[in-house]
Design a protein that fits this description.
Elements (H helix, E strand, L loop, with lengths): L1 E2 L17 H12 L6 H13 L12 H9 L2 H4 L3 E2 L5 E2 L1 H8 L3 H11 L7 E2 L12 H12 L2 E2 H6 L10 H17 L4 H16 L1 H6 L12 H24 L4 E4 L4 E4 L4 H10 L10 H8 L12 H12 L10 H28 L4 H12 L6 H16 L3 E4 L2 E2 L5 E3 L8 E4 L3 E7 L4 H23 L2 E8 L4 H11 L12 E5 H14 L5 H17 L3 H12 L4
Parallel strand pairs: 1-4, 12-13, 13-14
Antiparallel strand pairs: 2-3, 5-7, 6-7, 8-11, 9-10, 11-12
Amino acid sequence: MAYLKSKTLFFTTSPRSPLKMIPEIEVLHNNFEGEVWNPDIQVAFIKKLAEGSDFEGQGSDKDMALSARDRITRAPKALGFVDLKPTIKLTEPGKKLISGKRTEEILLRQLLKFQLPSPYHKEPEHFKGLFGVKPYLEIFRLIYELGTLSFDELMIFGMQLTHYNKFETIVSKITQFRRMKAYAETSYKVFRGTYIRNEVEKIYQYDINKGNIKTRESRDKSLDKFIKTKASNMRDYADACFRYLRATGMVEISQRGHSLSIMPEKQAEVEYFLQTTDRKPVYVENEHKYKEYLFNAAVPVLYSDDRERLLQQVAEITGTTSNLTIETNENLKDILEDAIAAKKAEIINNQVKNLKEYKDYDDVMTVFDDIKKNMLYDAPLMLEWNTWRAMTMLDGGDIKANLKLDDKGQPMSTAAGNMADIICDYGNFGLAVEVTMQSGQKQYEMEGEPVSRHLAKLKKETGKEAYCLFIAPKINESCIAYFYALHTMNIAFYGGNSVIVPLELDVFINMIEQSYKAGYVPNSEQVKKIFEYSMEQAKVSRDENEWYSKVKKKALNWL
């Protein structure tokens, strides 16, 4: 059990992407079902997790049990996918989640039930009455009511929605913020900074007046440090909320506008659960009853649970009503899911066709420019998606992105941790493409070994020669040295020599420009020559810097 320590809302931040819960709770279920969730089991769990290809890292060296609790007691437990008392078990929603069927619907139901306070999140005595809310439900309501909700509006005001009876007050605050922003005489950055400071001071006025402004893990007891820490926490929770709401498929994100809105096709579904879902927290003092409610995979009732509405949805998507009445509701949902997937596949096929014909060239280059200028809400996701588009445009191979796309073919979340971001099949060889916004030593720590592992996996699965292209705005020197060394090291675990070519984003963009101006579609052999050249130069270069310089020059003149 945890106690609510902040005077603002909080949202589960671990894992950052809700889909990453699936392989992790599956490991818990397969290896530790029926065990007592104690420090020994927690350490054993994180070790088992680190053995698999779905988990990036080894867990905390200082406290592996803490790493395990971070993975399980936050989102999986709080959202009702696992039960840890008296022993470990997967709940009904958890079993449905790892089945891989209708994950968006399953996640939506659990988000709508998440509440503060609860038997999992108690209010301390001095907070009594502050919380009384189902946070995701009310944020959905804010988006619906306002039409769009920006990240800053969610961070500054949405985090103050600690009780559902504050809803109208928060709407008024956001409306006033928008009005004042329109007439602000300073830059938006200055306007925003002032507004955040004022709101944080109001929220924590009592603590500030009492001098209770020391923050954890810091000797700085200044008011500025206190306000920056509280604002940073609000930013982290707002980001987590954005990502989890997006994963339900009910909202779409404006990358340039940094805002969420209800998907037009989901309007009726959102209206339904906003009207029918009880806004009050339930069974706050009764953990047994709360668990029964939280672990019930059929509540709350959603729009598509009604048979007539479900029949109508299926008919609209499939364009037929024949034989639908004889199907069960579950079968109808399967038919609907398959039809939506087929429609999405058609949309993506049209995107690919336009890309191969260079019809979207200008948009691809604009998105890269926005990424470089840090104008997009989720730059790592957009870099992955836009690189897939660029690789599709670049040549005639079969190019697959491993990110998750929504029903409109727009990016929702990045690739899972056990595979390359993009896989290119050129017939007689394969190419893994890895992208990252990470820089400095963090780039090497986070990306170095996993990149070579993903390349090895591609070799093993295809049985063909394969190479890897590693793209980042700036390439860290440690990565250059590591990838250079792998060219000449015959490591069985990695399937022999690992030919990984690192390129700065600007160099890759230049390759795209060359392709566009060439007047013909480059062929796979021209792609392959880059990697063959890289292998040759790795054998004769004095060191990694000479090798990297030559490979970069080759890429800049690849046609």
